[in-house]
Amino acid sequence: MSQRTLIVIGLSVFVAVVSVQAGTETRQAADALSKKIAAITQRAEAPRGGPPASVTLTEDELNSWLVYRSGRYLPAGVSKPSVTLLGGGTVKGVATLDLEAVARRRSSGGALDPFSYLGGKLPVTVSGTLHTQAGSGRFDVQSADVAGIPIPKILLQELLSIYGTSADQPDGVRLDEPFALPANIQRIDVGLGQMVVVQ
Q1: What is the residue range of 61's domain?
Q2: Contact indicator for 75, 163 with CB cutoff of 8 Å
Q3: N or C: at which end does the chain have fewer Cβ atoms within 10 angstroms?
Q4: Is residue 179 packed enough to be buried (19+ CB in 10 Å), middle (13-18) or exposed (0-12)?
């Protein structure tokens, strides 16, 4: 199982959302998260049995990993991701997207095509609630905006389709559709400033 898959799940797809305070990201916290991801992966490969195991991932660890380690896992045109864990399953995140690349790939060139008007590198913010149970999850989007301007869900889905494709998911990430949690993870509980991964 790849670290990229864990990122997608941990950030709820996307990965997404509010700028982190300056100075909270450290290489030590990034290393700590890498060790936790390795432990989760190793536990997934071990024979099942016994009580569930849990691992706590902090917001600082997640954002440190995003600053120092995520570069090779991010799709082209995506930069500066960060995440805020608000509790009660709610996740907020932000990433800078190269919207000119989106326009080149998706625009029909027509005056009514919203992709005709996209340009520059702008922050895209998404917030929503992560629901997980019995090895599957669903992310309910509450809001999304580009540089503070609200965007409809259909436009967010289009952006996810462009940036969320991979060999494992050739059609990209689909909003509102359930997904299987990787590494035998049974649930992810998002609290204030931390998430608990239960295997």
Answers
A1: 3-198
A2: yes
A3: N
A4: middle
Total number of domains in the chain = 1
Cα distances from 83 to residues 91, 117, 161, 189, in angstroms, run 7, 27, 20, 15
Contact 25, 60 (CB under 8 A): yes
Per-residue DSSP letter, 177? -
Mapping DSSP onto H, E and C, the string for 105-171 reads HHCCCCCCCHHHHCCCEEEEEEEEEEEEECCEEEEEEEEEEECCEECCHHHHHHHHHHHCCCCCCCC
Distances 70 to 47, 56, 58 between C-alpha atoms, Å: 29, 19, 16
- Answer yes or no: is pLDDT of 196 > 70: yes
Calculate ∠ Cα 74-126-194, nearest 5°: 80
What are the structure tokens assigned to 65, written together?
Answer: 């990993």
> What digits encode the pLDDT tens for the residues 50-61?
889 999 999 999
